[in-house]
Design brief:
This protein has about 300 residues and is an alpha+beta fold. About 40% of the residues lie in helices and about 10% in strands.
């Protein structure tokens, strides 16, 4: 995972963008952050004995709340690791010379194809690495990678529900087996109200959204990645800008959940595998509490 992260960091180092404040709190905000691979010494005068690390570039330290729960910090770490894991798995396929199998594999990510907050720079790096891997496997398979993100909550989910509702309150007016491909203008006029000249999600997303209503009438907010530069042009919304759109829609018809809204079976299975069973969880937390109590005695 660290190797994969440092490959993405390499994309960042080539970016030439303005750097944030230095990661050492003692230094002034005017001192730019120092990036590097592995562990390395700070170059600032008077701080040459201080070690810095490649992972400092994720800037998690900025979210630490010394007087609170630091919930945002832990949420950001989890969110970033999930997206790093996607790239890591794809790089593993390449390293093991399994690229020929990718024509039969769909990768599903829980949530947006994006990286937010202090680590948002990863979004562009992930996009660049996905495009590189896609070019390599497409030379073998002749088709793009199939990667989707599925949003279960949020303003896009709420908007899809709204346009599927008649003025009389009747549900189901959006046709089954239909997709609405979203462009920048539609998003800013109807969902995320904005007059900004900057494209929606320009600094945070490495994929774009569309609405799909399955054959049995369930709604899904889905994203596909930017596997070519033209895919990220949100001024237009054509099927060609959504890699493997037809294949993905047919797959969603088969995988959509009738138990949980706005979700598909791979995500439900993944959550079930990750969850701690209630009986085991009670015993586990009881043992942790007893251990803490013993240390305090």
């Amino acid at each position: 995972m660290l190797d994969t992260y440092e490959v993405l960091l390499g994309h960042r180092l080539q970016g030439g963008v303005k750097l944030p404040a230095h990661q050492l709190e003692e230094l002034e905000d005017t001192d730019e952050m120092e990036f590097g691979h592995g562990a390395f010494k700070c170059t600032k005068i008077g701080y040459e004995d201080r070690w810095l690390y490649s992972t400092d570039a994720l800037r998690f330290h900025e979210l630490l709340n010394n007087s609170g729960s630091s919930g945002e910090l832990f949420g950001q770490i989890s969110f970033v690791l999930e997206r790093l894991w996607l790239v890591h798995i794809l790089r593993a396929f390449e390293h093991k010379k399994w690229l020929h199998t990718l024509k039969d594999v769909v990768f599903v990510l829980d949530g947006s194809l994006a990286v937010y907050s202090v680590s948002a720079w990863l979004s562009t790096a992930i996009k660049n690495e996905l495009q590189r891997i896609n070019v390599a496997q497409k030379q073998i398979n002749g088709i793009d990678l199939a990667i989707i993100g599925v949003e279960k909550t949020g303003r896009f989910v709420e908007h899809f529900d709204l346009i599927d509702t008649a003025l009389t309150g009747e549900k189901g007016i959006f046709p089954n087996r239909s997709a609405l491909l979203l462009d920048d203008g539609y998003i800013k006029r109807n969902i995320i109200f904005s007059k900004s000249t900057r494209q929606y999600g320009q600094q945070t997303y490495f994929g774009r959204k569309f609405f799909y209503k399955t054959a049995n009438g369930y709604r899904l907010v889905v994203q596909t990645p930017y596997l070519a530069d033209e895919h990220s042009n949100l001024l237009t919304a054509t099927p060609e800008q959504f890699p493997r759109l037809h294949d993905i829609c047919e797959l969603l018809d088969q995988l959509v959940s009738n138990r949980y809204p706005n979700s598909i079976s791979p995500l439900i299975s993944a959550h079930a595998e990750a969850a701690i069973p209630l009986s085991l969880g009670n015993k586990l937390f009881e043992e942790i509490a007893n251990e803490i109590k013993k240390r305090g005695q």
